[in-house]
Amino acid sequence: MISGELIGAIAMTEPGAGSDLQAITTTAVKDGNHYKISGSKTFITNGGLANLIIVAAKTDPKAGGRGISLFLAETDGLAGFRRGRNLDKLGMKSNDTSELFFEEMRVPASALLGPEEGQGFAQMMQQLPQERLLIGVYAVARIERALRVTLDYVKQRAAFGKKIAEFQNTQFVLAECATEATIAKTFLDACIAAHLKGDLTTEKASMAKYWLTDLQAKIIDRCLQLFGGYGVMAEYPLERMYRDNRIERIYAGTNEIMKLVIARGLLKD
Q1: Which of the residues 131, 144, 166, 180 is marked catalytic?
Q2: This prediction's pTM
Q3: Cβ distance 152 to 165 under 8 Å?
């Protein structure tokens, strides 16, 4: 029975299995009308606060991806569930990222998501394109904000007797960044339209995640350079954007994994 105020989290990543979800070692063993879940997770967003957690575990450790199942665990007062430390990380400071431990944590058999065991990997893969598209949305939004605050700054800040905006180098950088941002938003809009129609492929979502987050890093870095020393000061917005954007090339599958996904799509028969 789910009751009270709930905060959700998805527990997939493990210390020895990052982007390789098939390599997870957390297990779920059937025990009468319950499952006993044992293992650990790391880098879990909302892990320090969540009390409704989707846990990826192996119900058949010998079956690879086909042996993974998902379980919905309401953790308030749940025996065998333990939170680890909140991890100190680069950027995203307002978002807790934690370790979770399961020590023969018992959940009812009804906590299994789906009609049968072994569907977890497919369930996760179905949702990853939307997650990767969402990261692309974050990237484009941050690109647009970086350009906006940089334009405001260079129009006001003076050096060598004239506004920073009057230097040709500044104008070239802004022109290049604005052009790339326009291309990025056009591509993102096309991906969103495809998603709304149910036509967004895994390969296209991977392109969006990899290319837009790489572009975000490039544009934020170039905008920060126009701020000079103030760009790395915490009271200026580029400093936080510079820190926060870095993880987006890693989570939801590293950008290197995205390239593998794209290539496999191109090469499949």
Answers
A1: 131
A2: 0.90
A3: no
